[in-house]
């Protein structure tokens, strides 16, 4: 499987995995290892100053020699919030990579495109490497790519919904018109969803709930790893076309009784 | 002197350096993996020593946690 290159950084794995919603930290670490992921996402949140057992920093658990950290701006609804969060993340994690999320609606968690574009512009001017989570709209993806984002990350379906690739045709169009890496982010439910995304020609898949929320996260992590490899290999192999009618596979010469 | 820290109102006896406040908040722990913003501006770690907290300042102290 060929490597994934984002912003001049090479990854052997085309699977990016999130770190939330696992039943426990041990399972998370095992699942991440099994997934083969080389980049993982984290959030940035307020330190719990009054409790002695506030939400534990995830930094202590992740081996940064093994995993590239991609902080997200989850929970931001405006460009201003997202930009501040990204800047805080850069300071806290010493990375200028950011998964930019600007949410427009609480039920669907679809992006607010206007604010997303504003935030992307601001962050790009501030030397961030921006990977925007966006809807599966080729027009928005093109705008984000043209303004200098390092990749575009169209959703397959709403975050955590497990619905898979709801609009494979849009994803295909996005893949067609966009020259930077396309990473399907959000909505993947099971292995075939990830394989389908890769067969459509996208460069990678980002997922969290599909693995963390599975009955057996470690097993699912492995399934996803294999699915992504299979889907990518299939894409690189150049599949046969779809035909309306049969195309006999056995030879016609030497037929008995002819 | 009233300030806001991580969304909550707090009262400080006197103004103090940001570095001092962070140290107290972390119970003296080494400030690894955290970031501080004062009135929506990121204050890099090297500058904490030279920034004084004033009345009505709003401080955010954050760190990385799990996320998708």
Second CATH tier, the architecture of chain A: Alpha-Beta Barrel
Order of helices and strands of chain B: EEHEEE
Helical content of chain A stands at: 25-40%
Portion of residues in helices of chain B?
A: 10-25%
Name the structural class of chain A: alpha/beta
Supply the number of structural domains of chain A. Answer: 1
The pLDDT mean of chain B sits at 93
CATH superfamily of chain A: Aldolase class I
Task: Provide tags for this entry.
heterodimer; A: 258 residues; alpha/beta; TIM Barrel; five-stranded parallel sheet; three-stranded parallel sheet; 8 helices; 36% helix; B: 68 residues; mainly beta; Ubiquitin-like (UB roll); five-stranded mixed sheet; 1 helix; 5 strands; 12% helix; globular
Give an account of the 3D structure.
- The complex is a heterodimer of chains A (258) and B (68).
- Chain A is an alpha/beta fold.
- Chain A has helices spanning 25-35, 79-93, 113-125, 138-146, 168-177, 191-199, 209-212, 217-237, and strands at 4-6, 9-11, 15-18, 39-46, 68-71, 97-100, 129-134, 153-154, 183-185, 204-207.
- Chain A has one domain (4-48, 55-237): TIM Barrel (Alpha-Beta Barrel), CATH 3.20.20.
- In chain A, helix 6 links the parallel strand 9 (183-185) and strand 10.
- Chain B has a single domain (2-63), classed as Ubiquitin-like (UB roll), CATH 3.10.20.30.
- Chain B has one helix at 18-25; strands at residues 2-5, 8-11, 34-38, 41-42, 58-66.
- Chain B has 68 residues and is mostly beta strands.
- In chain B, strands 2-1-5-3-4 form a five-stranded mixed β-sheet, with no helix packed on it.
- In chain B, 12% of the residues lie in helices and 35% in strands.
- In chain B, a hairpin with a 2-residue loop joins strand 1 and strand 2 (8-11).
- Classes of the chains: A alpha/beta (258), B mainly beta (68).
- Chains A and B meet through strand 4 and helix 2 of A and strand 3 and strand 5 of B.
């Amino acid at each position: 499987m060929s490597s994934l290159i984002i912003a001049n950084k090479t990854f052997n794995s085309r699977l990016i995995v999130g770190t939330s919603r696992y039943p426990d930290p041990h399972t998370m670490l095992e699942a991440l290892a099994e997934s083969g992921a080389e980049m993982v996402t984290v959030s940035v949140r307020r330190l719990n100053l009054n409790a002695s057992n506030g939400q534990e920093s995830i930094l202590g658990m992740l081996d940064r020699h093994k995993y590239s950290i991609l902080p997200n701006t989850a929970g931001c609804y405006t460009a201003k919030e997202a930009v501040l969060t990204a800047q805080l993340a850069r300071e806290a994690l010493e990375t200028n990579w950011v998964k930019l999320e600007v949410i427009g609606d609480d039920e669907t968690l679809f992006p607010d495109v206007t604010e997303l574009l504003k935030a992307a512009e601001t962050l790009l001017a501030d030397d961030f490497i921006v990977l925007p989570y966006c809807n599966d709209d080729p027009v928005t993806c093109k705008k984000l790519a043209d303004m200098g984002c390092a990749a575009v990350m169209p959703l397959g379906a709403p975050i955590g919904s497990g619905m898979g690739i709801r609009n494979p045709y849009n994803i295909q169009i996005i893949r067609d018109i966009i020259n930077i890496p396309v990473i399907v982010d959000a909505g993947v439910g099971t292995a075939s969803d990830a394989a389908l995304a890769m067969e459509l020609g996208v460069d990678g898949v980002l997922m969290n709930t599909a693995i963390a929320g599975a009955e057996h996260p470690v097993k699912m992590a492995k399934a996803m790893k294999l699915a992504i490899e299979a889907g990518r290999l299939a894409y690189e192999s150049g599949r046969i076309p779809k035909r309306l009618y049969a195309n006999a596979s056995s030879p016609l010469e030497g037929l008995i009784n002819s | 002197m009233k300030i806001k820290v991580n969304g909550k109102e707090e009262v400080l006896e006197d103004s103090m350096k940001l570095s001092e406040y962070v140290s107290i908040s972390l119970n003296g722990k080494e400030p690894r993996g955290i970031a501080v913003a004062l009135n929506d501006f990121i204050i890099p770690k090297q500058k904490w020593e030279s920034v004084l907290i004033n009345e009505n300042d709003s401080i955010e102290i954050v760190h990385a946690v799990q996320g998708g």
